[in-house]
Amino acid sequence: MHILSHKTLGNMVHRYKQFYNAINLTLDYLVLNVSLIAVYNFLDNSLIPWMNNKTYLPVVLVFNLLWLLSSNITSLYNAVSDDDIKVYNSAVKTYLLYLSLICVIILLVIGTKSYFITKEYLFYSMSLFGILLGAWKIVFFAVRKSDRVLLSNSRKAIIVGASRAGNELYNQFNNKVLKGYDLLGFFDDEPSKVSQKHLYLGNTSLCMDYVLKNNVDEIFCALPYSEHKTIERLMSDSDKNLIRFKIVPEYHEYFKNTSYLQNLGNIPILSVRAEPLENILNRALKRAFDIVFSLLVIVFVFSWLFPILAILIKLESKGPVFFKQMRSGRDNHAFVCYKFRSMRTNKNLEHRQATLGDPRITKIGTFMRKTSLDELPQFFNVLMGNMSVVGPRPHMLSHTEQYSQLIDQFMVRHFLKPGITGWAQINGLRGETKTTEAMLERVEADVWYLENWTFLLDIKIIFNTVWKSVTGDKNAY
Question: Which of 3, 73, 246, 428 lies at a 20 to 30 A Cα distance from 123?
């Protein structure tokens, strides 16, 4: 049985999104490499073909990998289905970030002499790439706007069953959310259920005759399960006549977001949400990265910064260097979370959030909180397995108890290990939560991260966290 979940609906909404993504990705890399090779051939006098030049091939690899990193940081290829201005702005941001990374990696880290990269080569190749990239995007927008692909591949569809699910599906068609389809109308045994009278095509017994006479490509069945005999008959007739048959589950209203379909034996199970980190390989990759990244930070940053911060903390106020507090972890198991102490010792230290201009915060504490240096000891929490580098921020136990009663999805964030930084933090949802609405926004961001985790998303979050630590965050206090 083919069940039409919200995830399937999402795939239908963007029937051509994967095609657009593939075209964009392929042409972007083609433009990049054409620029690199064309300038090489124009400037090089050695007469060695670029493919045989062992010193040049690593350069090509580095340039391509940096474009991959840049496009993932800016989510360039996730915005392909947005309007042209947003996509173009995203392409410009990606190009500027790419140039920045090129300058850092090539000029500062690798060096130009090792691979015979000249500043002239960098200037001409990157300029040509920028011009060709901009021109290609304009051509892409022109082709996409014409919708020629969609018009040439439009599928005729009908809806069987004018239930609530069927009418909501109609709204998706009517609002042009489901592109590439030509909706012909409804079939239902109760004509009164079809509010758009001009779309009523007849009762369900007439459905297949209509489908065959009008060359209908897809049937969306929104009948209730009580009509299982009708559903089975339509499904069988569809298979015999090469008609795609899809079922809109009557319980779809329970799923507000993307759902996930899997099979247990021959029984389809619809999960409320996708959880990429339930895959053991994904968890192993994330854990391996956590260990390696934490060790690097502890060895190369914490080791020399700790004595400096410890002395400054001690000089300004009495009390321990570290602040320890019980926080809510994965599966709501409490753990001891470590931070550098940024406040003067007081009886409200463990129960009251920091506020803007909080008199409890010391001068060195203000600096540490602005730059997130007070979170450095949490890399030991990561090594111990209590936390991850990236994930929902751990809350005080009292806040967990309080907000779990006020926000429906609050406890969902505890399916993951808490993180030193997270999707909510880089989107400005950090610091004091003055209202339930502010906490709700943070929870929604955490749940989005849970459902959309990828390794490259973690890299993007870390990159943005470092950037915000350097440039400053108005909500960090």
Answer: 73
CB atoms within 10 A of CB 292: 11
Neighbours of 294 (CB within 10 A): 22
**Which pLDDT score is estimated for 36?**
87
Q: What is the pLDDT of residues 195-242, one digit of tens each?
A: 888 899 999 999 999 999 999 999 999 998 888 899 999 999 999 998
**pLDDT interval class at 42 (50, 70, 90):** confident
* Phi, psi angles (nearest 5°) of residue 334: -75, 145
At 201 the three-state DSSP class reads coil
- Confidence class for position 386, pLDDT limits 50, 70, 90: very high
Domain boundaries, the chain: 14-148, 154-274, 280-471
What are the CA-CA distances from residue 173 to residues 7, 111, 178, 193, 234 (Å)? Answer: 16, 55, 5, 18, 22
Amino acid sitting at position 229:
K
Q: What are phi and psi of 332, to 5 degrees?
A: 65, 25
Encode 239-265: b = buried (16+ Cβ within 10 Å), e = exposed: eeeebebbbbbbebeebeebbbbeeee
Cα(84)–Cα(414) distance, rounded to whole angstroms?
Answer: 38
The backbone torsions φ and ψ at residue 414, rounded to the nearest 5 degrees and listed phi first, read -85, 5
CA distance linking residue 146 with residue 451, whole number of Å: 34
| pLDDT confidence band for 152 (50 / 70 / 90) | very low
* CATH architecture classification, 154-274: 3-Layer(aba) Sandwich (3.40)
* pLDDT tens figures, 459-477: 989 988 988 887 766 665 4
